[in-house]
Amino acid sequence: MKLKQDKYRKARGGHSRLLDVSCSKCSQHLFYYQKDGPGILKRTYLDRITNSEKFENLQHLSLGKIPQLICSKCGEHIGAPIIYKKENRLVFRMFEGAVSKKIVNLDSQKNL
């Protein structure tokens, strides 16, 4: 898998990493996410979510048609879809402590 190279990545200093995002309550894998720049995971941009049948390609829908981010295993409410006004992009605003994440080594993950 290759990371996206676009104006958003460049605006955040060009530092990106791939995160394995999972539910903190039951450890169910949710999706892989390209995190650009430093800091905690407050929101996930929909165009950065990969390898998820349920949550990938939602950026093409209108805000009203995007489902809530809910764990399919335990039903925990993890995030809500909003429009991030600074960049006019669709995101999931993550609830504090709802997810756990792990940095994925791209070299060892050829099947992503």
Explained architecture:
The structure is a single chain. Helices cover 4% and strands 38% of the residues. The chain is built from one helix and eight strands; from the N terminus they run αββββββββ. It has a four-stranded antiparallel β-sheet, with no helix packed on it. A four-stranded antiparallel β-sheet has the order 3-7-6-5, with no helix packed on it. A hairpin with a 4-residue loop joins strand 6 and strand 7. The longest helix has 5 residues. The N and C termini lie close together (5 Å).
Write the layout of secondary structure elements.
Layout: H1 7-11, E1 16-23, E2 29-36, E3 43-45, E4 49-50, E5 69-70, E6 77-84, E7 89-94, E8 99-104
Antiparallel strand pairs: 1-2, 1-8, 2-4, 3-7, 5-6, 6-7
Task: Give a short synopsis of this structure.
This protein is mainly beta.
List keywords for this structure.
112 residues, Metal Binding Protein, Guanine Nucleotide Exchange Factor, Chain A, mainly beta, 38% strand, four-stranded antiparallel sheet, 4% helix
Question: What does the largest sheet look like?
Answer: 4 strands, antiparallel
Report Rg: 13 Å
Query: Which word captures the global form?
Result: globular
Number of strands: 8
**CATH classification, class level:** Mainly Beta
CATH topology: Metal Binding Protein, Guanine Nucleotide Exchange Factor, Chain A
Cα distance spanning the termini: 5 Å
The chain-level mean pLDDT equals: 86
Helical region count? Answer: 1
The appropriate CATH architecture is Beta Complex
Number of domains: 1
Show unreliable segments: none
Relative strand content? 35-45%
